[in-house]
Structure formats: structure tokens, C-alpha cells
Amino acid sequence: MTDETEPDQPTPMPAPKPRTPNLALRRLKAGFKPSRGQAIVAIVLALVGCVAVVQVRVNRADDGYQNARREDLVAILDGLGQNTRRLESEIADLEERKNSLSSSADKAQTAREQAEAQIRTLGILAGTMPAVGQGVRITLNDPQGKMTSSNLLDAIEELRDAGAEAIQLNGSVRVVASTDFVDDPPGIQADGQKLTSPYVIEAIGESHNLAEAANFPGGLVSEVTGPQIGGTAEVNEESSLSITALHAPDEHRYARPAPSPTK
């Protein structure tokens, strides 16, 4: 007889336990699901944050004026006042021209006269016509040859800010918007012309304002007479100045006046 053994049977695995719902996890997920009211509150808070950032930036921008020196603030206010008065004068002039055109019997002649006056004004600003009027004459002596083109440019900008309407240098260079300054020791080139000490700046405008701009602490006179340059400066108010130097305008290569629509 032979013993017959039964083959090994696989051991049955225990049945998995049913998963019980995690109530804590469900509550946590439900808490992160925003309601309509919570969404509105979030949007409002975001808008408040944006407004706060903008306000901080504005406050930082204002800090520049808060930290400015008293002299700088006075100069800024003076400049704003001069610009306001100049604009008010232009408005009054335009209104006067409008009224004269409306009331004139010969409107064509009146318009022609106003156009010619405007041409003369633009010619003075462009440096193509001579000019006469009150102003200042500033004489800068630079015995050590330390003045640079930037010093001269700063002087011109200060006078422009103070209301200078026409400026010439050493009686030979008319200063206009396109005038360039280049260092050429000993001296400075202005529009290709060599200028040497003494530098004579003649500017037409309200003489007192121009003189104050030149003598302002930290301005032109202080810069020239300071230790960095070691020169001298003389500012004279003049009741009548003649600016005769003219600027030769560049000839346009491509632009041409457009034909009048009435022709």
C-alpha cells in the first residue's frame, strides 16, 4: 500500500476590514471649501491690500519733498510760481488776440499782423532774430581753466528755469535748444565755437529773477567761486541788453512745408 498525501492547500488570507470613514478629514476638507460669504471677504481684503500698497508708495514719493532742504523747497515754489505767471500771461495774450480778431473790421489784416508778431516771437526763441530787453550780464573768470561744459550747461539751465528768453555767450554764440557744449581745455566749445575765460553770459528776461537764480546758494556763483573751480563771478542787472548773435538753423533734408489747404 502506498500512502497518498493530499497536496498542500494555500492558506486563506483574512478578509480586509471595511474602511471606516475618517470624520476628521471630512470636516477638514469641508472647512477649506469657501462659502460665498468667505469669498466676498477675501476679495475685499485683497482690494484693501492693494490700496495699502499704493498709499505706501505715494507716501514714499512724498518723502522726497519732506526731506528736501528749505532752500530747495523755496526754489521749487518760485519755479512753479513763475511758470504759473507765464502761463497766465499767455492765456491773457491769446484771449486778447481772439477778442481783437472778433471785433476787428478787417480781420484778415489783424490776423496778418498777429501772425507777423508771432513770427518775431518764435524767431527770438529759435535764435534766428536779434533781441533787446532787460536782463543780466554774468561774467565768469576761470584763471585755472577748471570750468567744464557741464558747469556752463548748468548755468544755462538755471537761467532758463528763471525765465530767460534769449541767451548769448561771449557775444558770439546764440544759445538755443539744440546748442551743444563740449570740453576743449583750456576752454569750452559751444556749437563748434571755442570759448575761453572770461565767459560772458547775457540773458534777457526779468532781471531780478535772473540775478537771484545766479546768486542762489549752491547755484552758478557758488559753483564757480567754490574750491572746485576757484574762479570769480560777477552778476549785473541791466535795464537794456542787446543780443545780436544769431543761430543758423539747419536746412531740412526731407521735411517740406505742407501746402495750404486753401490753395
Task: Summarize the structure in words.
Residues 9-19 have a biased composition (Pro residues). Residues 1-22 are annotated as: Disordered. This is DUF881 domain-containing protein. Residues 77-118 form a coiled coil. Belongs to the UPF0749 family. This protein has 263 residues and is an alpha+beta fold. The chain is 47% helix and 17% strand. The chain has 7 helices and 8 strands. The protein has helices at 23-32, 36-66, 70-103, 107-126, 149-161, 207-215, 220-225; strands at residues 131-141, 166-169, 173-175, 181-183, 188-190, 193-195, 199-204, 232-243. It has a 5-stranded antiparallel β-sheet. The longest helix has 34 residues, at 70-103. The protein is extended and about 95 Å long. The chain starts with 22 loop residues before the first helix and ends in a 20-residue tail after the last strand. The mean pLDDT is 78.
Describe the secondary structure blueprint for this structure:
Blueprint: H1 23-32, H2 36-66, H3 70-103, H4 107-126, E1 131-141, H5 149-161, E2 166-169, E3 173-175, E4 181-183, E5 188-190, E6 193-195, E7 199-204, H6 207-215, H7 220-225, E8 232-243
Antiparallel strand pairs: 1-7, 1-8, 2-3, 2-7, 4-5, 5-6
Pfam family, one: DUF881
Coiled coil: 77-118
Keywords: Coiled coil, Membrane, Transmembrane, Transmembrane helix
